Automatic annotation (TrEMBL), chain A:
SMART domains, per the entry: EFh
InterPro entries, alphabetized: Calcineurin_B_homologous (IPR051875), EF-hand-dom_pair (IPR011992), EF_Hand_1_Ca_BS (IPR018247), EF_hand_dom (IPR002048)
Domain EF-hand per the UniProt entry, residue ranges: 109-144, 150-185
The protein's name in its UniProt record: Calcineurin B homologous protein 2-like
Annotated compartments: Cell membrane; Cytoplasm; Nucleus
Pfam families: EF-hand_7
GO CC terms of this entry: cytoplasm; nucleus; plasma membrane
Source species of the chain: Carassius auratus
Molecular function as annotated in GO: calcium ion binding
UniProtKB/TrEMBL annotation, chain B:
Gene, per the UniProt record: LOC113059462
Name under which the protein is recorded: Sodium/hydrogen exchanger
Ranges where the Cation/H+ exchanger transmembrane domain occurs: 84-477
Cellular localization per UniProt: Basolateral cell membrane
Catalytic activity: Li(+)(in) + Na(+)(out) = Li(+)(out) + Na(+)(in); Na(+)(in) + H(+)(out) = Na(+)(out) + H(+)(in); Li(+)(out) + H(+)(in) = Li(+)(in) + H(+)(out)
Domain (Sodium/hydrogen exchanger regulatory region) ranges: 574-660
Keywords: Antiport, Calmodulin-binding, Cell membrane, Glycoprotein, Ion transport, Lipoprotein, Membrane, Palmitate, Phosphoprotein, Signal, Sodium, Sodium transport, Transmembrane, Transmembrane helix, Transport, Ubl conjugation
Amino acid sequence: MGSTSSTLLKIPNAEVLMQETGFSPAHIIRLHDRFKALDKEGRGYLCPQDFGAIKELAMNPIGDRIIGAFFSPGKETVDFSTFVKILAHFRPVDKDRPKEPNSPEPINSRSNKLKFAFQLYDQDKDGKISRDELLKVLRAMLGMQVTEEQLESIADRTIQEADLDRDEAISFEEFRKSLEKVNIDHKMSIRFLR
Amino acid sequence: MELKMFLLVSGLLVGSLVALGGASGSPAKGCKDNKPPVIEKDCHEPAKNRTDKKENETVKKSFPVLSLDYENVRLPFEISLWVLMASLMKLGFHLMPRLSSIVPESCLLIVVGLLVGGLIKLVGEVPPVLESKIFFFYLLPPIILDAGYFLPIRQFTENLGTILMFAVVGTLWNAFFVGGLLYGVCQLQSANLGDVNLLSCLLFGSILSAVDPVAVLAVFEEIHINELLHILVFGESLLNDAVTVVLYHLFEEFSNANTITATDVFLGVVCFLVVSLGGIVVGAIYGILAAFTSRFTSHTRVIEPLFVFVYSYMAYLSAEVFHLSGIMALIACGAVMRPYVEANISHKSHTTIKYFLKMWSSVSDTLIFIFLGVSTVAGPHEWNWIFVGATLFFCLVARVLGVIGLTFVINKFRIVKLTSKDQFIIAYGGLRGAIAFSLVYLLSCDHFPRKNMFLTAIITVIFFTVFVQGMTIRPLVDLLAVKKKQETKRSINEEIHTQFLDHLLTGIEDICGHYGHHHWKDKLNRFNKKYVKKCLIAGERSKEPQLIAFYHKMEMKQAIELVESGGGSKLPSAMPSTVSMQNIQPKRSSQERALPQLSKAREEEIRKILRTNLQKTRQRLYSYNRHTLIADPYEDGWNEMLIRRKKMKDLEKKMNNYLTVPAPPSDSPSVARARLTSDPQVRGLKSATKNIPSIKVDFASPQNPESFSVEDEFRQKGSQPKESKEDDGGLTMKVPSPEKQKKDKTPDEEPQQRLMRCLSDPGPAAEEEDEDDPFLP
């Protein structure tokens, strides 16, 4: 534990981060190492090109969206604390955490996980997934293998299924409802971040 | 009333069975029992009980008009009689709903077996015993294949670590705990068990420790618990076969040797790895062979199911040749071949496979339990209170301790932890069954002088677990409010979002630099898509993304439901969009896309030409061939079809109101293509009006089935496909080769045959949801 505490001191705001995200010191250190590895020029922050350098991410159909999620609107850089906070969404849920009445919902709660995923769909941030946004996602995922008509019909069908208030778009609540049978806690957690 | 008739018939049947069993006198295999086979003379006695009275006529020495020659058909006759009786029993239970809701079927069957065995014994004959060879080679494989083919891969792989822990470590723990403690008990002076050595005890323990898939399936299927628990217990019961096989052979070998060295233990571990991995590899090889074979079966659809069954059975037998784990081979074979075979075979074959597997496994399962009952009555028993009691006690204790201990360790690695309720169900679901019985039966008398005692003990344990645990698990599940299985099907939303989340998680894992579960799954999927699918799936379906396949299936189901709900009733809110079920048009290369578009008028012209020309060629199709299943147009289905036609007309009217695309002639080509291929009702309607037999024609025609479906389209609206033959150059319409129409066949053929089927037959217990799972969901 001695080495961890000394390394921990080098990381700015480590205590605050651990408090907010619920990561253990070991995790913070691991993430910091990863951050430094990505930040090849040692600037202390990451820019989109650094993310782009991860080659598996380039093959990912929604890779650019994921990268975009790290950057808050308007900002061009990601510092360590933002990096950690985003990744905190994927921490497995602590089932036996005592529910303090006044504390804010933890970042890795089911609701927040879903919100994060929702934001990836909803690029223009109007709180709804419109047909076009859905089409874009489908196009990205299914790529070259299907015709436009098929994509459109799938998109229509999807919206039809989920859209309860008939506004031709999927709101967050509808999104959440359509995923109620999926075990989000399991699906959106990475074991590494425990 | 039904019940009484049924009882009468079954009574007669049982009576004849008893009589025949007596007449033939199959020898029992008890250690000390050497009864000689019954002599021929007895054949005539039970004849009097039989309903056939004709041979009681006066015996003149003239030409025998009617003679009795039972010995000729004895074996098949008896087997059929047993199977028939088993099936009638099954029928009977479901006629008594109250009884079958309290008592699980397996218990009832064992009781029936006991009764039949008792009857046979009363008659004075020796009841047949469940021979191990018959069990392992004929009765067990169908059940395991059924389980393996329909294994929910997604849940299985997600929980694989847990399942393996339970299967391997849990079984080892059980074996040694029970074996060791039993040896301790045997050492007690009062027990009179001094001659049971350590190795025998350990062997017995290892046989006893394995949770039995047959029993688990039989009980768990009725209680509908949530999928996680189901797959945990069931997966464990399947995978522990490897452990059991290794331990069994190990201890059997050692019981000859009498000394164990460290190398032996090491070899044992190596043996375990070889047995399990070898079994899986053998299974996978046969699975791939089956998938590859199915790629070429488009011309001989009738024998497609045969390949699935035979390859799987061969996998099982091949594994048994090398003493590898046959069960694991069978599971691996079924699981590996399924996604590819299903993409290749026709819908009818798919249904056939499903039905046959369910039917065989059901019959096997019934027979196993009945024979278990009969063998209990038959087999020589040696009751030893202490031994039997100790066995039972240790068995239960070992299970509970094992589960608790393992869960404690496992929960450290699981994302979704196992609660104590889960643990209880897992422990309680550890049922023993016929496999254990057969293994004990296989023991040789020389090395194991107390074999009868082992038999008695194991039968007691089996009875206890099946009866007590089997009966009480259902009320306990309700009492503890364990989550039940969710019956609803996946929606397209779930499917899309799940895939999206998969990509998301893979991306996050890449960002973290962590090669986790998603990373490998993604890699495997890519590999599968790039290389494997191309080899094993015929034609264009190899390029079909999972999502599209899922979507098509869903649309299909909805279309069926629409028709089933009949014309005139309300339309569901989510209409199957007409553009949905079109051909896959893989955009193969950018070159094709760059060609200029044809004008619509020209296209229409071409289509008309094709339509008229091709209609003429259609007449050639219906040549007689034994391998085709061309239906007689004047069959019974005629009336049904008329009704259906009317329904479809009504439906079409309604659907036309909702169509978002304009009427066919002015459609853009792809949409027109889409429309006509999409609406099964519409197509069915048109084909009904024009040519009745075509509805029922199976695609086992000697012609290329795909070409037939193409013609089907042409008949109604005429579309693009064969253009290039007529009109080369300048055509942009990609010509889906006849192979490509394969995809078309599915929407075309399915609903029509399904319509027939749906009206009469709800099908076996729905495993529908599992079929929707893509390769690696």
